[in-house]
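Allow me, if you will, to draw on your knowledge of protein folds for a short while. I have a record of one protein: its chain in single-letter code and its fold written as discrete structure tokens. Could you please explain, in whatever detail you think fit, how the structure tokens follow from the sequence? The record follows directly beneath this note:
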Amino acid sequence: MNEMSNMKYRFERFSRNNVLLSILMVVLGLLLILWPGKTLEVAAKILGIALLVGAAISCFSWYRDRHLQSSYTTLAIGILCLVAGLVVLIAPRGVITLLPKLIGAAIAVNGVLNLAQALEMRKQGGNWLGAVIMAALTIVAGLFLVFHSFGAMKVAVMVIGGIIVYNGISNLLIESKYRKAGR
């Protein structure tokens, strides 16, 4: 397998995983919006489960692609998601105080990754400006969660849910634009 087809294969695998995780984000966000009165402990457990699912997907991807040199990054992400998911499930109350900040940091990092994808689309001559705007909004939304704690947890849960839904939808839209640009 030559280097170009190897890169294309890795991107296609990443792309499928990204779509699945984005759909999970939308579902999780909608649950948080629709039932904000539920305890944050339940939200933390849902996050823990989502992290474990992400860990399983990353570890499976690593196992499948273990012959590729860059597959160890996927394994490292899987291990980090596994540890984070277990910590959240074992001590959800301790994590609850950090939940908005953790989610915000994850969303900001995801926004940076979206920005990198958008800039790659620019090199390919695709419609990249909308993707850059969505990525920038994702970064701002994530940083907002990191730096502004809310007094009313019910409002915080709804805002987190809305941002997670936005993040999942923007990931799916950017992914769609990126695939069209690559054709």
About this structure: Residues 3-34 form the longest helix (32 residues). Helices lie at 3-34, 40-64, 71-90, 92-96, 99-124, 129-147, 153-182.
